[in-house]
Design a protein that fits this description.
Number of strands: 6
Number of domains: 1
Shape: globular
Radius of gyration: 22 Å
Strand order of the largest sheet: 1-4
Structural class: mainly alpha
Largest sheet: 2 strands, antiparallel
Number of helices: 20
Order of helices and strands: HHHHEHHHHEEHHHHHEHHHEEHHHH
């Protein structure tokens, strides 16, 4: 029986053709899952901070990730996992819901519309044109800005930086128990990361959990149990509300972020896995559809945009080459449904005597993810002011304004203006000028 199953898997996923085996793919899937498992703790903690039910978001995250990852295996046969995207979730929470005061149900509707737009543009080449149109400096700056924003939130959640009336932010009290928990987690994560451990982020979360438990900051609630109810978020998205004119920039931003995350991850991981052919990625359309369909389904379940995860590169590094790796990851996401008590304990907030809610256990993960995302800053041409200044504004405005959209807007506007002012207008694609104009109109009528 086992031999029949093995032969079926080898035939279905072309294992021999890709130079892989069932054992290697299973190991790759386990490695990938352990590397990205931090999202199971971070996503519910983040989304519940704006009123969504923690347990329901956890279930939605597991189900949407498993579904989209299985689609990746079926439509593209790639060893790539799909899960709620870091950066997208922060835009959802801090920009759309908190800053713009959009109800989370409407924000979920915006996520679904962006996913539908992604699907609708699959056959017209719009996504490819957009990727070509955006200058490399702005692409790198966008990723860097999102990384800085995520790291900033991580430091705030840790209590390492706190609000200050005179200086906006200042250093927190490093002697308080929650901050010490976060510092322990950050040190463990950083040390394991520089030592090359693939599960550094997960190990940091677990070490911080242990210290918080020993310090009586969190209570042990068990490890396994039945999955929580999905009902509090299931089908709560408001697509009608997301169709209002003021939501157009939000839907565009969701679409824009998904576009770059998906293409960038697919190309990067595909290159590492040896899947590229003459500079192109076969079956890329199927992979992009997996992201898009997964996003629509995820919004219906109650979670933010899902996209291909760059952590899939860890599975590729141990030999993963086919969609069987993705199938293993999807199975582990489904298995995680039965570990909600552990996730609830790890991702829950800790209230300080001053009434501030901190998340010191998951905060170190955000800081390290931020570090990983800013590495693209070295690819910006700092010797060319027309490239350097727009890029700088892009990644500085994002964390300071707590807005990915505003960072992108400042970058586009500055890029268009400086290229025209320097007499080098032809260096920018016409779409850059179109978006710069739209952003200017948005600010002109922004209340």
């Amino acid at each position: 029986m086992l031999r029949v199953i093995q032969e079926f898997l080898e035939h279905r996923f072309l294992l021999k053709e890709r130079g892989s085996s069932v054992r290697t793919e299973v190991l790759a899937g386990l490695t990938t899952f352990l590397t990205l498992a931090y999202i199971l703790f971070v996503q519910p903690a983040l989304m519940s901070s704006i009123g969504l039910d923690f347990g329901s978001v956890f279930v939605a995250t597991c189900l949407a990730s498993a579904f989209a990852t299985l689609l990746m295996a079926a439509l593209a046969n790639y060893p790539i996992a799909v899960a709620p995207a870091m950066g997208h979730n922060f835009y959802f929470v801090f920009t759309v819901v908190l800053a713009m005061e959009v109800p989370w149900e409407v924000a979920l509707g915006g996520v679904a519309l962006a996913g539908l737009l992604f699907i609708a543009t699959a056959g017209v080449g719009l996504r490819e044109k957009l990727i070509t149109a955006i200058p490399d400096s702005l692409r790198c700056a966008i990723a860097t800005g999102i990384g800085l924003l995520i790291a900033t939130i991580g430091l705030q959640w840790a209590g390492i930086i706190v609000a200050s009336p005179g200086t906006l932010v200042t250093l927190g009290d490093l002697r308080t128990p929650p901050v010490l928990v976060a510092l322990v987690g950050l040190v463990v994560t950083a040390v394991l990361w520089i030592r090359g451990f693939r599960v550094a982020i997960l190990a940091g979360i677990l070490s911080a959990t242990t210290v918080a438990w020993l310090s009586d900051l969190i209570q042990f609630e068990g490890v396994a149990g039945l999955p929580p109810s999905l009902w509090p978020t299931f089908g709560r998205l408001d697509i009608g509300g997301a169709l209002r004119p003021e939501m157009v920039p939000v839907v565009f931003a969701f679409f824009f972020l998904a576009l770059f995350d998906s293409i960038g991850t697919l190309v990067g991981v595909g290159e590492q896995a040896g899947l590229m052919r003459n500079g192109t990625l076969p079956r890329a359309r199927g992979a992009l559809l997996a992201d898009a369909i997964g996003t629509v389904v995820g919004a219906g379940l109650g979670t933010s945009t899902v996209t291909a995860y760059v952590e899939s590169a860890t599975g590729v590094a141990v030999g993963g080459r086919t969609g069987l790796t993705a199938v293993v990851v999807a199975a582990l996401f489904l298995l995680s449904l039965f570990f909600s008590p552990l996730v609830s304990m790890v991702g829950g907030g800790i209230e300080t005597p001053s009434g501030v809610i901190l998340y010191p256990v998951v905060a170190p993960a955000l800081v390290l993810v931020g570090v990983m995302m800013v590495r693209g800053v070295r690819r910006i041409n700092w010797d060319d002011p027309t490239e350097a200044l727009p890029a700088f504004l892009t990644f500085v405005v994002m964390p300071l304004a707590l807005s990915i959209t505003d960072g992108i807007a400042f970058g586009f506007i500055a890029y268009a203006l400086l290229k025209v002012a320097s007499g080098r207008a032809r260096e920018a694609h016409w779409l850059v000028y179109l978006f710069a104009g739209l952003f200017l109109v948005r600010y002109a009528f922004l209340a």
